Amino acid sequence: MFNGKLSGMILTLVFMVSFTFLPCLKAEAADPVHTVTSGETVESIAKTYDISAEQLMKTNGLPDDKLFAGQRLTIIQTAYIPSIYQWSERGKKIANYAKSFIGFKKTAGEETPEKGFDSSGLIHWVLSRQNVPVDRLTVDGFYKQGMDTATPKTGDIIFFLEKDSLKVVTAGIYIGKNQFVNSGYGAETVQVRSTTEDYFAKYQVAYKTYTPKGEHIVQTGETLKSISENYSISMSTIKSRNALSTDELMQGQYLQLYSNPLYPFYVNQDAAYDKAYDVIKYAYTLRGFNYVFGGEDPMIGMDCSGFIYWVMKEQGLSVKRGSAADYFSLLPKIENPKAGDLVFFRDTGTRLGVTHVGIYLGDGRFLHTTENTGVHISNLSSGYFAEKFESFGQVESLMD
Fold first, then answer.
1. Residue 227 and residue 153: Cα distance in Å, rounded?
2. The CATH number fitting domain 214-260, selected from 1.20.1510.10, 3.30.300.20, 3.10.350.10, 2.60.40.420
3. Extended strands (E) in 8-119
4. For the whole model, what pTM was predicted?
5. Is 123:58 a contact under the CB 8 Å cutoff?
6. Class for the domain spanning 266-399
7. pLDDT of 281-306, one tens digit each?
8. pLDDT, tens only, 190-220
């Protein structure tokens, strides 16, 4: 009997040891995570784990080699496999980069790793560092600015709205499987949260995307022909959807590949003049291009009036190069703008008078370029632009 009890105890012990130490009896282990300490670099961390710096950066969506103490980097030994479609890969990088800031402190009104993040600050930091040209907005602003999506993907933005008023309460960066990265309610740090948590389950959920399906950013060495072949879309169709006047492309240019407009603010709006839609479609391709005061060439940089001059010139419109004040003085002022009219602002930055101009899209949106963000879409209802707004100008008069 003693031998029987001893045998049973030994079998139990063996089973416990096996369950604890044998991988075959465990759930699949998560990938190791490295927490960055002061002085560490991408190169030094990669060397520690015997992987390439490129592998480390791609796995974590790092936009460059700048690291922050406390950043959590996932370590994967197997080769990184990019997504098939560029917009999916961009979304994956946004999600992975957001996850690297898990544990950073929540701070109201802030938007940097050094000072902390609130929910909108985290979204702005991650999107802007991933080369998505956006203003610093509130969560409500990001909700209004993003493109609707019924099929959210990794890297899109998830919003929680009060069911009766539809007021946006908070938002985060969606990482799939009902999870999202958020710096907001119920926590003092950036965390991965779930829509199934009691707090979030009581709200209505909506998704917006800033990396829409069908958008391709031209990479080094790509041509219109190679992009056409890659997506099985004719060159003429791509040119038409983006109002491209030639086959020449610029690195960094945003191309709409599918038929539905990616940011359809001008759809169903009256056009200000015959080529207004083409001006807008072509101007969309230059989102993210740099601001340079006095510039009028995307490859060098453009200021606000240089941007207006370039996109109109490229559409075959004869418009003189002028400043925002010059265009303001030339155009009749109107209260009900059409898509393609100009919108003017006063006393921006340190200058006085009419100092800024953009292209009105419709639905309160306009396209322009600024020093910090480059070419991007903004909303007239945002506090800064609402305060600085001067008037709309009727472009049709320039076409006479």
1. 23
2. 3.10.350.10
3. 33-35, 72-74, 111-112, 116-117
4. 0.88
5. no
6. alpha beta
7. 999 999 999 999 999 999 999 999 99
8. 999 999 999 999 999 999 999 999 999 999 9
